[in-house]
Amino acid sequence: MNRNPSRAVRVGAVTLGGGHPVAVQSMCATRTQDVDATVEQAEAIRKAGGDVVRVAVDSPKDVDALAEIRRQTTANLVVDLQENYRLAAKVAPHVDKVRYNPGHLYHHEKDKPVREKVRFLAEVAREHDCAMRVGVNCGSVDPDTKARHPEDDVAAMVESAIDHCRMLDELGFARYVVSLKDSHPRKVIEANVRFAALRPDVPLHLGVTEAGIPPEGVVKTRVAFEQLLTRGIGDTIRVSLTLPNPRKHEEVTVGRQILADIAAGRFRSVPVFDDDRLNIISCPSCSRVENERFVELAEAVKAMSAYAERHALTIAVMGCRVNGPGETDDADLGLWCGPTHVNLKRKTEAVGAFTYDEILDRLRRELDQLIASRSAAAVPSR
Fold it and tell me: Does the structure show a pLDDT above 90 at 246?
């Protein structure tokens, strides 16, 4: 494949961009403080062909666990700092890359300029020989940037990424990659094409976030990767699937298969993801999931809602409080899961919190009401 002329960025023992082979990543779904389980999963991902393994850190106890995880695995580790960028200085000695989300960075210490927060992260990464990823997600773009593009959320994503690249460049920190993700393949393709046209030098990490349950999640991801990698866009990938913990390494297996197929010219027929049918999105399970019934719930939602497949509706099932509230805002019906209850929404409107045993029946009632109201609105008046 012809590749964009992106610069090389070293992450531990692997190099992203600069003409190196496309790297494959995954993320541990175990609780970080469960050291044995996390090491086991990190090693399973590595042995499956995972070049980089991501771990989430939310608290000082997670940092302590991360130090022990580092001692027990040879995987190239990246830490996710979505909700607490200030932990960067404590986690950086134990990892090879730090990932932050510009949208979440915006919401913490609002009295402090974002540029100062980025400077702090760059200084920490430089001091501890770490790379960085600027991870932009469509559902968590900061409100100021989003407000400038009320009709084009892809443009908001691209602007956010470009702004953070500029800040890092001005700080003299070039050892970074960027990701622009959405749950819809079309938006992933469009965002990465737009960004790559402006900054072909920046290595790109590709992924369809919340792709969902296989096989649909695999198809969505394959569509995006085929369209982007064949244009030379993309230096590292992750297939984000809703899977139970023992199967998490399958993300890597699927990613490797997609890369092999593209390299060999084996392209599948490319489905068109028009917004005229039921679309279920669900996040890949990770260590932030506070109840492992989340995966079972996502599968149950898919089965329950099959009768509505011909309706142009979106149901989002999110596993945690970090991405759940914001990334269900655009869904017609959204669920984000807590330890004992599932929060149900109609777009941005909160419906209520229901137990895991109650939520499926209540979701069906809401789905039936939504279908009925749309059907009534479609009937022409006499």
Answer: yes
